[in-house]
Batch of 2 targets.
Target 1
Amino acid sequence: MSTTPERHDSFDTPPVNEELIPSNLRSADAMQPRPVLWLISAVAVSLSLFQLYTAGIQPLGLFYQRPAHLAFVLVLAFLIFPAFGQTRPRGVLGWIIDAAFITAGFLSGFYIIWNLDAIIARAGWWSQTDIIVGIICTVAVLEASRRAVGLGMTIIGAIAILYALAGPRGALPGLGEWMPGVLSHRGANVDRLVGQLYLGQEGIFGLPLGVAATFVFMFVLFGAFLEKTGAGKFFIDLAFAATGRKPGGPAKAAVIASAGMGSISGSAIANVVTTGSFTIPLMKRLGYKPKQAGGIEAAASTGGQITPPLMGAGAFLISEYTQVPYIEIVMVSIFPAILYLGTVYLFVHIVAMKQGMRGLSPTELPLVRQVLKAGWQFIVPLVLLVWLLVNNISPMRVGFWAIIAVIGVTGLRGLWALVAEGPLTGARVQASVMRGLRMIFESLELGARNAVAVSIACAVAGIIVGVVGLTGLGLKFSSMMVALSGGNIVIALGLVLIASLILGLGLPVTASYIVLIVLVGPALHVEFGIPLLIAHLVVFWYSQDSNVTPPIALAGFAGAAVAGSKPMETSVQAWKFAKGLYLIPLFMVFNPEIIYGGPPLHVLWTGFTAILGLVAFAATIEGFLFGRMDPVSRLLALPAIAALFWPDFRVEVAGAGVILVLLAINWLNARERRAAL
């Protein structure tokens, strides 16, 4: 970043030290021959064009859309991720293996499309070919998961399959003898399992892949177009222009920019590496410790996963599972997301004040009006997106028109720049058109690449969901949860949190949510009386904790890589800054008005106590708000904060009163200290 006194219209993003980025986050193209890169581009662009066609021109039935999507994604995954890793050439053996899996991926999807009528006609009486292709598809999905998502998810999927086959009537009766009685079931043979996983609507081609193949892909593609057209840079510049001069300005801008971009990109880790490559060096320069800078970025990027409109695919999945309209999911998620981001923002502010930091000088920052003048057009697609959603247009169609709007806005910007630079000539017009076509091509390719991991994760999640439905594991797991918690809802939520953290070791956030809600959702809703939508939101929020909770904090590790700090120290900081991730779901459970609404005064009181509790919690953790808090005040604040979560109005009032008194004392003491200086 320039340090000259001249005012900048925008920032130049500094390069990231490639050695600091984990190998799994580096480009998979380093060792690929040029013809393979061309083939990857062709398949990726074809997938994106197929998705655009089915979203905006000719919708397809689920048994056409989902298998075709999976076939494209599997072929793309096996091209991008070689059998023996990304750091060495494939070799002859590698090409033989990959060619076999590419063929298997293509066959997996298009076999159903070609034979759909015949498969429907013989439902339940599958042919030998159906079973063989189903086995091939399952193996291909698990192998693609190993390459694109990670070995952990592949192992969990394989264990689910073995569990389905274990039992006295299953293909592996001996394995069933080793299972505890509560987990035992009669077992399934291979034909029945393949029918469930490949030839039905509750397995690989079930709801998770259906959401990934429609709504999620379009919004991921929309995010790719925003990135390639410069809209992402516009929003980052806007965040810095608005907050850069405040104490801890770059960190506050990181919270806003990372949450905004993360809400569309759908990946906390990717957002840490991209946005963080710019925000983290600025935070370090301002005075934040490297571990703090990396932790702030990880916590802010995780906030993007719970921020509408995309919510890391969660909004679409919750809508499909609960049958609540997507726009309602978006609307009820806005205030909780603001609470979370506000908590991270407050932590950042407190750290800045404790360490006596200042903001960047005005000469180092763009002006808001200059940023808006240069890129206000990028706001148009977002306004169109919201308007279409409010008018109950299908999210898939909304994504289509939002992408068209981005292309249109970028084209008009290019035309305006072309006219402003001088007289139009054929050569200049041709060069401008070629730049636009290249941008569209690169966006189509990037969108498809970004969607590979989430689509494959959803396909494996479909395997797990199919096994749960086939074996009745969900009811068994729910009864175990009730027994372990003793009927106590707080203990039950603690068990969900622990389970989500364990699952997060091997599953991406989206897959972790799907598996958890299938296993514990019925218990939370039926046994503990938590409203269905809130049960889903709680599980979805808790599924994010693997991003920021040690010992495995994936976004925290990515932040440490960019900041050059120790991974575990950075993860602890991310865990501290992301405390709202654990408290806000509790508040939803005990104060459902925050989601479902109610009498205006009650809703206002609930919102006030939520804000007050989070402010008091951040101040107590850091020991600072207006000034330093004494140990007695910090000790008294803890039971008062707990009282705000108590489902009794009198207890809430008492807790709020104590907190207000403690904060008032802190403000008076801080004012006296400043007056004495």
Target 2
Amino acid sequence: MAQGLLSGFVRGQLSASEVFDAELMGRFIAISSAWKADHGLTWHNMRFYYNPITGHLEPIGFDAGIPYRRTRHSSPLHDFITAKVIDGDEEIRRIYKETLEEILDEWKLSTPSWIMAEEKKQLRILHSEYPFLQGIKFDQFVEQVEFLLEAFDRRPDSDVEFVKAFMVQGEEGNHVEIVNPLYFPIVVNALKATRISTREEFNLRVQPGESLPRHVNGYREGSSLHKVNIQLPPSFRPKEFKVMVGIQNKGNGKVRWIQSIPYYPMKTANPIPQGEVGSLVKRFSFVLHDPIKNEISIKPGIWRVGDWLVIPRGMQFRIPGGTELRFEPSFGIISRSPIAIDGNEENPVVLTGLAGSGSKGWQGVFIQRAHGPSVWSHAFIRNTHGIHLGGWSLTGGINIYESVIKINNSYFIGNKAEDSLNIVRSNFELNNVVFKNVVSDAFDADFSAGEVRGGVYENIGYGGGGDAIDVSGSNVAIRGTQLKNISDKGISVGEKSEVMVEQVMVVNAGIGAASKDGSQLTISDSSIVDSGIAGLMAYIKKKEYGPGEITATGVKIQGSSPATICQTGNRIQMDGKEVDSVEIDVDGLYSRSINTVGIQ
């Protein structure tokens, strides 16, 4: 997906904001340019993270040297690719300019004072070894930003250097794609392949009907890059070979060989549908639109859903009590607005797959950056298997991203996704929520904050491993919850999380509660019964985070041998007393446990 989106951008099929996170990309280029860290903006130095939730690429700062001597002013608009990102997209262009203006204001008001104070402190240390080391010429950065703003409306001369070849594997067969970003035409003379296993080299035959040499025109300003595709025979297996392409400048006899890069077919659209109210009402007879309330709602009743319900931004989506939505296996709900589920004890709301669809179930729900809180009451969520749409996928049956959600008196039953409920970078409340008979993890909170009050988690991870409550990089309170028959961990606390647990019962889990990787677990007035590995465990799985800690008060551990395991360097305190630590092989423990209780 990431490669396909990037390919679509480079070839002019997708705008920059369809491919990149507009705000992050605009600010990244502006900040890098303001600090003259343009080495990191060179295309081969750029690194991207594909955010699997938003479906966009995010820039990763890499190899960006900041000069301490005065250097010439430079602009990202002088580079072909970054100029295309900025000039070709109004939203990124706006964010780029606003960021430069913000930086300039800060430099003129407050930035130099604290930076120079920090520099003075560091230079005192460095001068003990490098007495002639000079400080950074900070005034050059004010001049640089002023230069960038002055150059903003001037169109740069493009300067590109490299021809690229891609070994594209697609449904319609394999082909080599050669892209020419140069201003002059090139000629593709030959293809050769090297067998990876034996290093045997030979000329590569092309599909009958193809011919070499092939001419590729040069780039012209305002047009898309020129390319040619050379189809390979169906019998060719790209994974077994390295493919080289012989090219030469037109009129120049010197042939240069470039290695093709394994790639995927170009995307012409982002796979996540955007949604439009008129289309939604037209396609679904049971969907109502109230323009006065700015609300989309479902008529009460039992409805078969044979397409995606896509709710656009700026709306309110409401599902009234007494409604049952039965989704075909390939569909679910994608909403950029809050979802209200207004069930009650007599008239709940049911979201499920079609009766008789067996293990297929349905895809689930994705709420992304909703402008207000989603409140769910008396909802039954059944048989989700996770979202998979055109190469884009989410691990959760219900996925909440950068939103607020409150779920009351609801049930998640028979879900087959990696996480029945996955909440990412969001605030949440779960009140009396039941998770039962789920294949993998029940509830997974990543980089979020919230509370779990009451509720029951039962028969979790029966498909080969799963945690009842899995917390990563989050701050969570858990009170009065029952966890029964958990194949892995009742409560898993990791990646610098802080979790407070009160009056919780864990029965028959692999590990009752675990704290790992820089996390702190405080547990009180709780009971842990019949844990297969240990009642409480503190250890390190990811060394970059450091040790885990557990502080337990009034915790009864029965039928678990041993009651606690504390890896050397970690810490468990039981009723004010330190637990002795031991050397353990965490990797070995995990591999052994997979065959017994499925610990992950």
